[in-house]
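Design job #97: recover the sequence.
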């Protein structure tokens, strides 16, 4: 029964994870249903042990540039859904984007995360303007770049890579098809999954993401981990649902914080050598320590003050106070006995992952390993 703890069973599962053995779906569900604080802390400690083995005490940091809030989709959970009349819409100017890219680079972030909705403006012009912008950002920063443009044509993936993009992020949110249809109205589950497989075949690193608190079960979460393994995602993330004004899901409550933390920890047990973010978009700086203590090794959504860039879930939380900066998070890292990685360490990790993908392609090995 959920909440009941079999001490020997828990120890066996955690010992199995420590030696990098594959956990069964039943074992994953067992961990996700834990509620006892002492037992949950055992899971977190195991996740930290595994993180230390693969990443020492180093944490990667991502700068965030949400440069367009226009979208052609009508996702029921998203503030920027096309039919939301209360959503603030903007296209940031090239000057604003370049200034922010420069500021984030100087602050010491390891990657720039270029985020947008599925903006009809870029789709209608074949992404020409966006590709030119990416090329300029790459020259200014010389950092690895991630882009989150939604479901793009296959040929655009090649153009992204040519322009200097390293990462393609396109979240499924859930791998339960019925729940997906309620969240991403009118969007093909299979096409969204397929574009990530095609991106990885083209040498791009891939991030997959989930939402919790949107009607999923622990069985759904366990199934999502299996999909992530099939995808061979290089970065896996989970975020708690935040109700957004003007959306069909505005009246729902936020989920228990524990579900997201346990999911981060279980992700570390299942994907020991992958990147797992601790996002500042849900709770701001206040929730960072708990996410790091659960096994995350990336801090995402760092945003310079007074730039007017919105966040995904919390568009103002801790931004203008300067907390969502490299300097702002350093005290939290220190309290967790962690420290920022050097930029070259992150660049080396990215380069090695891309080399591994190339070798996999040459050897004709499937991407589900």
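Job complete. Output follows.
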């Amino acid at each position: 029964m959920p909440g009941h703890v079999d001490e020997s069973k828990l120890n066996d599962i955690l010992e199995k994870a420590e030696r990098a053995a594959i956990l069964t779906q039943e074992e994953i569900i067992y961990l996700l249903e834990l509620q006892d604080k002492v037992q949950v802390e055992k899971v977190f400690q195991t996740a930290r042990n595994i993180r230390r083995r693969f990443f020492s005490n180093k944490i990667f940091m991502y700068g965030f540039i949400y440069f367009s809030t226009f979208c052609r989709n009508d996702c029921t959970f998203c503030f920027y859904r096309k039919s939301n009349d209360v959503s603030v819409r903007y296209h940031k100017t090239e000057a604003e984007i370049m200034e922010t890219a420069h500021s984030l680079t100087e602050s010491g972030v390891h990657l720039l995360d270029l985020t947008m909705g599925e903006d009809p403006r870029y789709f209608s012009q074949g992404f020409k303007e966006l590709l030119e912008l990416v090329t300029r950002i790459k020259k200014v920063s010389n950092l690895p770049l991630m882009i989150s443009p939604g479901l793009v044509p296959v040929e655009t993936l090649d153009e992204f890579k040519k322009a200097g993009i390293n990462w393609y992020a396109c979240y499924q949110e859930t791998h339960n098809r019925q729940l997906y249809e309620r969240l991403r109205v009118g969007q093909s589950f299979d096409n969204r999954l397929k574009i990530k497989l095609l991106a990885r075949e083209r040498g791009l690193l891939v991030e997959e993401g989930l939402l919790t608190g949107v009607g999923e079960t622990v069985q759904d979460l366990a199934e999502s981990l299996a999909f992530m393994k099939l995808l061979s995602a290089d970065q896996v993330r989970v975020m708690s649902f935040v109700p957004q004004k003007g959306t069909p899901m505005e009246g729902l409550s936020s989920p228990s914080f524990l579900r997201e933390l346990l999911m981060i920890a279980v992700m570390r047990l299942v994907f020991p050598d992958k990147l797992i973010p601790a996002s500042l978009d849900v709770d701001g700086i206040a929730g960072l320590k708990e996410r790091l203590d659960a096994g995350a090794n990336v801090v995402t959504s760092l945003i310079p003050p007074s730039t007017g860039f919105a966040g995904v879930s919390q568009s103002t939380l801790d931004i203008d106070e300067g907390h969502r900066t490299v300097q702002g998070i350093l005290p939290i890292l220190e309290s967790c006995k962690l420290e920022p990685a050097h930029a070259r360490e992150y660049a080396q990790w990215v380069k090695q992952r891309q080399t591994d993908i190339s070798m996999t392609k040459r050897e004709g090995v499937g991407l589900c390993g």
